[in-house]
Amino acid sequence: MEEYDFYEVGGEEEARLHRQNTSIQLLIQKVARLYRMAQFIAVALLLLISGALALLITVGLGGRSPRGGATDGEYLQWESVIPHAFCQGGFSYSNGSLVVPRSGYYRVFVQVTYESNGEQCPKPQMMLNNKVLYVPYSYNKNVTLLTSDDVVRCSTELWRKSLHTFGLFFLEANGRLRVTSTYPKFIARNEYQVFFGAELLSSQ
Q1: Which of these ranges, 2-16, 23-37, 128-142, 157-171, has the smallest mean pLDDT?
Q2: How confident is the model at residue 24 (pLDDT cuts 50, 70, 90)?
Q3: What's the mean per-residue pLDDT of the chain?
Q4: Are residues 72 and 48 in the same domain?
Q5: Which of 178, 194, 176, 177 is CA-nearest to residue 186?
Q6: Model-level pTM?
Q7: In this structure, are residues 97 and 177 in contact, taking their beta carbons and an 8 Å threshold?
């Protein structure tokens, strides 16, 4: 009876195919990881660029009234060139108004500090009030954006009150921001105590 040699080639072929499939799966996983990493880097770069642009268009109008509470009729006058004040990013300042350079969402802020300064109080108790008014370019009418108030009792002792407020608003290009005060002659003379400004967060 003749003897025949048999070889199990099927098992080796299956193992080879399994190794190929495993290599392909590892390659796919590696490509997927690289793709996700590329997406992450792209998003990070976008955020970095957006942050840089936000810094470039951050603006403010700070400082104090040049004559310690000077007004142009109803509105406070501000300095825009003293050391801690600036007016950049397309903003302009004119006659008490901060002119909005482009339509978008802004953080608007104001702080006014009042103090006894030798002036006689008009009444024993004063209601201090600040308002930030906005005049949209589309119609010439004041809109109150922010308001803050406090009460001070005048006496022979020195007193000081700081009123601070801020908010987020959509503002039109060429709209104007301005501030009113109930008792401007009691406004402090230090620029770090009295400031007003706006910061662009996102534009249209």
Answers
A1: 2-16
A2: confident
A3: 76
A4: no
A5: 194
A6: 0.65
A7: yes
Q: Which residues contact 138 (CB under 8 A, 6 or more apart)?
A: 172
Cα separation, 198 vs 19, whole angstroms: 63
How do beta strands 104-115 and 160-171 pair?
Answer: antiparallel
The answer to whether position 179 is within a domain reads yes
Three-state DSSP string of the chain = CCCCCCCCHHHHHHHHHHHHHHHHHHHHHHHHHHHHHHHHHHHHHHHHHHHHHHHHCECCECCCCCCCCCEECCEECCCCCCCCCCCCCCCEEECCEEECCCCEEEEEEEEEEEECCCCCCCCCEEEEEEEEEEECCCCCCCEEEEEEEEEEECCCCCCEEEEEEEEEEEECCCCEEEEEECCHHHECCCCCCCEEEEEEEEEC
| Distance in angstroms (rounded) separating the CA atoms of residues 23 and 139 | 68
Do 76 and 167 share a structural domain?
Answer: yes
What are the C-alpha distances in Å from 101 to residues 174, 194, 196, 200?
6, 23, 16, 10
Domain that holds residue 52: 7-56
d(CA 28, CA 33): 9
Which region among 73-87, 117-131, 133-147 has the lowest average model confidence (pLDDT)?
73-87
Q: Write the CATH number for 109.
A: 2.60.120.40
Q: How many structural domains does the chain have? A: 2
